[in-house]
Structures are given as C-alpha cells and as structure tokens.
Amino acid sequence: MKSRSVSKTVHVVNVDNYFPEMCELTFPLLRGYAKKIGAQFNLITERKYPEFPPTYEKLQIYEQGADSDWNILIDADVVVGPDAPDVTTLPQASPAVVLAAASFPADGFFQADPYFLRDGRKIGLSGYFLVTHKMCHDLWTPLEFGYDVARHMTKRQHIVDEYCLSRNLAKFGLKMNGIGNFEHFVHIGTNADGVYGLPDDDPVEEKIERTKRTIDLLWAS
Which of 110, 159, 161, 210 lies at 20 to 30 Å from 190 by C-alpha? Predict the structure, then answer.
C-alpha cells in the first residue's frame, strides 16, 4: 500500500494590513520557503478575535491547521535565507516535541496559575517561529476565557499570544526543543512604529533598510 504523503502548512499572520512595506520584502521569501519544503502557504488575514491584540490571531491555527501533519508559524518580520532547512526534518524535530525559536522565563512575564505551577518548568514561548506536529496540536488551543481576563495575566498585553501558547505548553505537558539555524531564519523584530500600542523609537525607514540588508546578506551569490 502506498504511504500517505506528509502534509505541512506554513502559517503567516497579516491582519489589519500590518507593515506592508516590510511584508512586500519578506512574503516572497516565506512563500518560497513553503514551496521549497512542500508545504501549503496559509496567510491569515481575517480577524477572528477582535477583542484581543492582533498577535492573538495566531491561535486560528488551532482550526486552520487541524488537518495538517505539521504546522509551522513564522512571523511576517522573519527573513528566510535560501539554504533554510525543512524544520520538520531537523534532528531535534519529533512528532512529540514542540519546536520554538526562542524561550524566556515565564514567571517574569506571566501570572502563574495551576497549570504553570504544576508543570514547574516556567517556560515562556516566543511566538515568532513555532513548529508542531499534529500530536502536539494542543499548543494552538485558544484560551477558555476572554481578553478581559487574559489582559491581566501578562505584563505586556501584546504578548497575550505567547501567554496562551506558554500556558498550553504547561497545561498539556508538551515537550519543547529549540529550532536553531538562526543563520537561515533572521527575526528582524519590529513593532511597526507602535502598531500594537507600544512605543517604538526605530523609524520605519531604518527597519526597512535593516530588512533589505539582511536579505542581501543571506541571498548574496
């Protein structure tokens, strides 16, 4: 019997016309990466959770990625290089492990609850680049309460998505490993001049130039 092919989806959130000048530069690379690894490219543009900050729309992957064997979330401000590997085939990748580009001490940013306390690892997941197999799809489970409660559970309201993801890691007892390969996936890290209500002293023009320089560096022949 012929084995079923593995399905993969690369998800990128771009709601409220987020930073179009940067997306014009990064999206062709993100689409190209999806094609390279044989993945579908899913651009999330519709608001499902309008009461939450835009970053929380990543949790739409819970429904939109339900049929994929692998779900890969990459933020719009990540520059992908030409030699970027298929993250689902990395040595550290496993159906039973969540891959994250970065983590931080959860107790420094989030209000502890029974799930965090029981888990004990105090892992905060950075939400700009995450990889899950369907065995770990629970990571994308939306919160069971609204923003009126969630906003008080994190010191920085725009990272409520990371609160939810970190809480799910603890709640479901999911294992976590690092993605690495930072030379192939470069996070520009921009807030697009306070688009989420945060101060940002880095002008748009500088962010665009930084993105262009990064692309030139990674894609130099």
Answer: 110
